[in-house]
Amino acid sequence: MNPENEHDPQNNFKFKLKALNLLFLAFLAIILDPFCTFSIHDLVQIIRHENLKTITISSFSLIFLVTLYFRNRCRKVYLLNFACYKPKPDQICSKERIMKIFAGTGKFTEESLAFQKKIMEKSGVGDKTCVPRAMMAVPVEKGIAAAKKETEDVIFGAIEEVLEKSGMKSKDIGILVVNSSVFNPVPSWSAMIVNRFKLRHDVLSYNLGGMGCSAGVIAIDVAKQLLQVHPRTYALVVSAENVTKDSYLGNNRAMLLSNTLFRVGGAAILLSNHPSDHHRSKYELVHTLRTHEGANDASYKCVHEEEDEQGTIGIALSKNLMAVAGEALKANISTLAPLVLPWSELLLVVTSLVARKFFTKKVIVFSPNFYI
């Protein structure tokens, strides 16, 4: 995950909205207070005796504040539907079959083959996972054409399904956010989607690359921020990776991990800020968090695309990856917990922290129940 907690522009935006709301409510209370016992006779008397200019200015001021409030309030974002790409049956590849493919390349030593088999058995990868057709070819294909074919199948398939599920037309989409970490050809994936589905000319399109596993969450956050400033808009978020490009035909252990962990997959999500979509949406997007650990050298170096000693390109996964991911997750949960937990759980956490700090270190910090 990839956050920015302290000086987050989103937090500043929410603070300004709250301040505007309070100002509006205070002004409204002052204006309406005299009218609590107001009658038609009183209104006639005011029009007769008061300055018409004063009444006009007050009325327009109230209308302006009401308009400003409704235009700038935080818009609710709804998840209308989503779709995950479903590979064809001929792409299903068991662990035994993938090991035969690896052995057939002639690129791996016996030690590398044994290492990959061991990692697959421990990682929980099943025998119903799918790989791109390029990996099943003899010899294995790793060119740009093969990589583009894989990602086109994934993202186009997911988009077609989510549009069909939602009953939407491609022309309805006003925002497009796409992410693919490693494989980013020219034209971009966002441009390919615009061309394939003939999106309208004023669509706001963004293409995220090189952002790793957190890119999907970041893409949703980008779409959410855009939906705050573009009313009555639909946003399409597409997330995919590329196994053809990511596959590594060498013997560096840090790079071999990607061969054993990743398979074909992708998803498309349709978001909306139309108030009328509230009843047909699946979820409402309430909170998004981003924790950026890039300033930490261990975090920065945990996933790298590089060449091995023989010049073969691959993705190196550091041993620190799990520890780094754990720290980012811890920071996110610490920020998210006060926003989603009930007061009863928060009170127990605070009580245990106070007791541990001022009384005895033996007190165990209370672990809140997020299922409540």
From TrEMBL:
Keywords: Acyltransferase, Membrane, Transferase, Transmembrane, Transmembrane helix. Residues 69-357 form the FAE domain. It catalyses: a very-long-chain acyl-CoA + malonyl-CoA + H(+) = a very-long-chain 3-oxoacyl-CoA + CO2 + CoA. The chain crosses the membrane at residues 20-40, 52-70. The keyword Ribonucleoprotein does not apply. GO terms for molecular function: fatty acid elongase activity. GO terms for biological process: fatty acid biosynthetic process. Signal peptide: none annotated. InterPro entries: 3-ktacl-CoA_syn, FAE1_typ3_polyketide_synth, Thiolase-like. GO terms for cellular component: membrane. PANTHER family: 3-KETOACYL-COA SYNTHASE (PTHR31561). This is FAE domain-containing protein.
